[in-house]
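Quick one, T. Sequence first:
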Amino acid sequence: MRTDPMAASKKEKNSVEQPAEPKFFLASGNFWTHTLMRLLIAALVVSGGLLALAMARDKAVQISDFQVSPASLQFISKPDWLKGPIEQQLKNFGWGDRKISLLDGQATRKVAAALSANPMVKKVRSVERQFPNSMRASVELREPAAYVMRGSKYYIIDVEGTRLPGEYPSRAAAGLDLLMVAYVRTSPPVAGKVWEDRAVVELSLIHI
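Structure tokens:
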């Protein structure tokens, strides 16, 4: 059977061409899917690494070799009178029984805060780590000026009449050779507050 060439040509011209598949949109969809998967994997890796670092840090700060106690705190340019019970009042105030690790990123800030809260300290100039288990601090102190006897207890004040930390059974217990303020009628204020008593005020006026 013979095929008419003219009829075949007409048939080809009359046929409608089918549109091509939207390959661009398919490829674009795959690209964003793969990108999101990569970002998700990266986020998981980063979060896992941060978690591992946090766990390692928590373990590190518990190592006893790097723990700082009040006894290990050292003072730069320490005055001659800062010794014995007076020095212990400076070191122990605000610390309690806790310790601080030198591996703690907030170690110097915590020690500076404890020292700033001490009524003996006017200003904290600097706090430095001294590995493996010590810290050095430079502070401006209130200098003891006199004893105040109230009842059977002795207290120490500075030249401004501010009461310093500590309560002593005798003058010798504090280990300082200071003036004595007598005839004090009022009760001692909390450490860090001015002792509002006439005898104490008169002592302050003498040193102005």
